Amino acid sequence: MQPPFTHRWDVTPAQARLIQEAGRALVVAEDRLDPIGRVAGVDVGFEQGGAVARAAVAVLEFPSLAPVASAVARRPAAFPYVPGLLSFREIPAILDALERLDAPPDLLVCDGQGLAHPRRFGLACHLGVLTGLPSLGAAKSRLLGEHGPLPPERGAWAPLVDRGETVGAVLRTRAGVAPLYVSIGHRVSLARAVGLVLALAPRYRLPETTRRAHRLASGPADATAR
DNA sequence: GCGACAG
DNA sequence: ATCTTGTCGC
Fold first, then answer.
1. A224: CB partners within 8 A, 6+ apart
2. A129 is a domain residue
3. Which nucleotide is nearest to A88 (CA to C1')?
4. In the 45-64 stretch of chain A, whose C-beta falls under 7 Å of nucleic acid strand C?
5. A112 Cβ nearer than 7 Å to chain B strand
6. Is the CB of A132 under 7 A from strand C?
């Protein structure tokens, strides 16, 4: 089984960093996955100026990418946004949404960093260790690390390096659009993570999936109000 | 001290 | 993340 990893969520920033230091030892940074039948895209964000944390999860069959389930959850944010401590705002809402899914996923594709994090324990690692599920980070922007020039064509990638350590990859999922920052979450290697994100990229994009998950979960009243 | 800083 | 104006390229 998974090593147990539970902790409080009503913590100070200093306590949150200590929890991250403890959690990083539990991250499995290599491929330990079964065949993937369903992938969950996990998008996070906030509402009401940061007072409410929101999570939207869409489950797709893999590799067909046919949608099979979705859920959204909102929670009063018990933690401010602090760079490096995003999990403590968002993961409670994510866990709520995951519990409501009809079809459990085999992989979590997270909207945020994994190992590409100051303490090597970004949201993707944290969620992976908590659930025991394979996970990876696919962030829309950079938290830390440097990289060389990125060729313009789809599939091009460059290592993301922090303090002399490769912590992720910058991946061009489409020509002419901003790259994604891919990193290991849990039980997935970086090479596999890059390959998976590329396989999802043609029809799966985080912002679109978020809107779709909201529409599916909030019903026609909300959908027509937009 | 100054700038950077997932969502 | 979200909002708004100005600019560039197809």
1. none
2. yes
3. B7
4. 45-46
5. yes
6. no
Which tokens in the block code for residue A176?
């002419």
Q: CA A83 to CA A221: how far, in whole Å?
A: 35
Those nucleotides of strand B lying less than 7 Å from any protein Cβ are 5-7
Domain CATH for A203: 3.30.2170.10
Alpha carbons A127 and A117: distance in angstroms, whole number: 14
Nucleotide in closest CA–C1' contact with A84: B6
Domain ranges, residue A78: 13-141+156-218
Separation of A74 CA and B6 C1' (Å): 19
pLDDT in tens, chain A (226 residues): 666 899 999 999 999 999 999 999 999 999 999 999 999 999 999 888 888 999 999 999 999 989 999 999 999 998 899 999 999 999 999 999 999 999 999 999 999 999 999 999 999 999 999 999 999 999 999 999 999 999 988 999 999 999 999 999 999 988 888 899 999 999 999 999 999 999 988 655 554 555 555 554 444 333 333 3
Beta bridge partners of A72: A56
